[in-house]
Amino acid sequence: MPERNNQTWVRDLQSTDTERENALADLHATLLRVLPSAVTRWLSPDDPALETLVEDVAQETLLRVMDKLNTFEGRSQFTTWVYKIAVRIALTELRRERWKDVSLDEMTDGRARETEPGFVSTREPGPESASEQRDALRLLQRIVSDELTGKQRQAMNAIGVQGLPLEEVARRMGANRNALYKLMHDARLRLKSRLDQEGLPIEDLLAMFGL
After folding, report:
1. Which of helix, strand or coil describes residue 54?
2. Cβ atoms of residues 66 and 85 within 8 Å
3. CATH number for the domain whose boundaries are 6-95
4. How far apart are CA 45 and CA 50, in angstroms?
5. What CATH topology corresponds to 104-208?
6. Which pLDDT does position 153 carry in this prediction?
7. Chain CA centroid to CA 4, Å
């Protein structure tokens, strides 16, 4: 794995083809190496779910990093910034309810059991904050309905709201990880573009929910 500084990480991830793929692969390998020790603060190292959780968190972190790459200000090491994102995602995953008995169809048409959405803060909001969150959720639901394809909505709901691991969603949708990764990446770009048009950058939306 080549040694990279902040500038070369960002440069390679913003490149096309080989440089970008190599940087993603190196970042993925780094996450797989450091995440187990971080996650075992909350999950036993003997837990059979550990390996799957680490892989899912690593994949989701890559998505999040690519979406937020232009927000990296270089105030810390790039890998430290990525690590902090990964830990927050891991904690969110660990807070979510179990998902194994819920079908994608149930999730899509709203028949799934009530769960706490992954993008909603666990802190109790005040009255004004709660109202802002409700308004933002309605806006987000409308944008999702307008902008995303059926498959993108299904994947976004299953992964982003209900918390299914990428591998499980890919299996249920008859796709592979790479195809699902591209589907989610394209969906996030479309959401970000529409949110920007609506005057609500995605960073502001996440901050509204305490993320």
Report:
1. helix
2. no
3. 1.10.1740.10
4. 7
5. Arc Repressor Mutant, subunit A (1.10.10)
6. 87
7. 24
Give me 97's structure tokens.
Answer: 């309810």
CB atoms within 10 A of CB 9: 22
DSSP 92-161: HHHHSPP-TT--HHHHHTT-SPP---TTS-SSPPPHHHHHHHHHHHHHHHHHHHHHS-HHHHHHHIIIII
Going 205 to 133 to 84 to 43, the CA torsion angle's sign is negative
Q: According to CATH, where is 1.10.1740.10 located in the chain?
A: 6-95
Cβ(40)–Cβ(50) below 8 Å = yes
User: Which pLDDT does position 61 carry in this prediction?
Assistant: 93
Query: How high is the mean pLDDT in each 10-residue block of the chain (211 residues)?
Result: 88 89 93 90 84 91 92 91 90 61 47 38 48 71 85 82 75 86 86 78 54 42
Report how far Cα 123 is from the mean position of its chain's Cα atoms.
20
- What is the value of pTM for the model shown? 0.49
pLDDT at 132: 65
Burial label for 117, CB within 10 Å (0-12, 13-18, 19+), is middle
Q: Are 52 and 104 in contact (CB under 8 A)?
A: no
Question: Where along the chain do the CATH 1.10.10.10 domains lie?
Answer: 104-208
Instruction: Give CA separation, 174 vs 69, 155, 177, 184, 188, in Å.
Output: 30, 12, 10, 15, 21
